[in-house]
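Notebook B, p. 112. Complex prediction, attempt 2.
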Amino acid sequence: MSSLDTTEPTTRSSGLEGAPQAGWRRVADSAAALMASLFGTRKAGYLLVAPTVIFLAVWFVWPVLHMIALSVSARAVDGVMVEGFTFDNYTRLFSTDLYFRILLRTVRIAVLTSLFAAIFAYPLAIAIARGGPGLARLVTTTILAPLLVNVVIRSYGWQAILNKTGALAYVLKLVGIENPPMLLYTEWAVLIACVHVYLPFMVMPLATAIGRIDRSVEEAALVAGATRLQGFVRIIFPLSLPGLAVGVSLVFSLSAAAYVTPQILGGNFTPLLGTLIEQQILTLSDWPFGAAISTMLIAMVLLMNLVFLRLVNRRFARWTGGGR
Amino acid sequence: MTEGVSPLLKFVVAIILLIVVAPLVVPILMSISDTPFIVFPPQGFTLDWYGEVLANSEARDSFLFSLKLAAVVTLIALLLGVPCAAGLTRYRLPGGDAVLGLILSPLIVPLIVIGVALLQLFSLLGSRATFMQLVIGHTVVCLPYVIRAVSASFVLIDSRLTDAAAVLGAPPHVVAARVIWPQVRPGVLAGAIFSFIVSFDDYPISMWLADGNNFPVPLYLYTVIERSFDPSIAAIASLMIFFALLLVIVIEKVFGISLARLAS
């Protein structure tokens, strides 16, 4: 700070004397001195963090809190907004049959997506963690590369497969199955595509967790006469539970909030909560109800994250020697 | 016997990988079909559908718009995120954990909800600056990725190197430029790539904030899928898949960052 005090007057006078270049150099020097005197102090840390904190407070925390507030401060009656504290928007979501069915379907799809993603992810994760470097690299790249393809296109790819004239119907016809039931625009189609889209988020944490398991434990079990299946059930599965918890909370959160995939594969027949929010706000302009559904979605996702990441992880951290 | 994985597991893995790749291969096969409608297996061979797509000004406009949006978003996310990551990792700030929680929370709250909440706020504020709104919405989501990637490399900095430079008389800005930056650069690069991809591919935030003049690629693709039935949509899908493959190659070969590192 002392260096700043001595340089500042000279800077100002040299600027007035009409030597702006020298003046700017002094300014730059004193700025550097200021930074230097701050460097290593706590104040500098706060200065570096502040812009991001302010940005997120204004453009993330404020809008989300405002939306939650709106969900209990107004309701639409015959298209007219009535102000005042109310839980109407929430009771409407639970007591109207149509909306409640959409809520249940969303939970069902999210749970089944997590379940099937876990079933498909285990062989892949074991191959990444226990296969040679070549196999691990092949599996990792094949699983992660689709993440760079837009989700609209990945969903379209499933539409092209499940369509009446699509690839699946063609393959089934080859093996002698004519006129199979149409999967497209059913919950099954939504489920299949959701599992595909969110599979990487299950595979990676599982592979990390399995990679951390001491190989000698498995080897000891095999030497002692355990089959590979027993090795999986008794050793790999229980010790990989922290990774599974991370994967499930990620996949559940993502599929519960999915919009594009259910729209493209479910059509108008299987809307999820995301579609309901879009309809209520963009088509019906019922902002408070839309806000209430959004708040429900946040609550579901937060609950899932708390339950899986906190409770399950803490409990198993003792066994595996360190959480995630 | 104890090393490696069993043949049965390899077989299962091969089947799953085939299913994973299938929805990306089928559109490419369908895009060359010489028929006025989509059909599998493709009949005949033509590249006309690609010509039709590439000549389409709507497709080109939204592609260029998304590139511009992702570039601006990534720049702002870096300007905010790199100093923030430095502040969080280089200084023991009281309340640092709370700040980290705030920064990572846009990853937990569903994107579709962040988008609708922002739309509500913008209409409350009477804002009509669509491009600015999209930039803000995307930056909220891209910031956590940038900060996570950059923090990871700040944490790895060998403090003996910075101490040695300081002891030998290097002023702080020289230490920052010559010792810290080279060690942080891979993290900044990974964060920038991640931010660019997240913004370029975003649907659930753009769907609330975009308008006809500011129409990102994912929204355009969705409208095309909704309204057309000829193989030109398979051609667009194929072009996007080729674009993603190109990205994979650029990221892995040119930047030397493995996809696994980017995702972790």
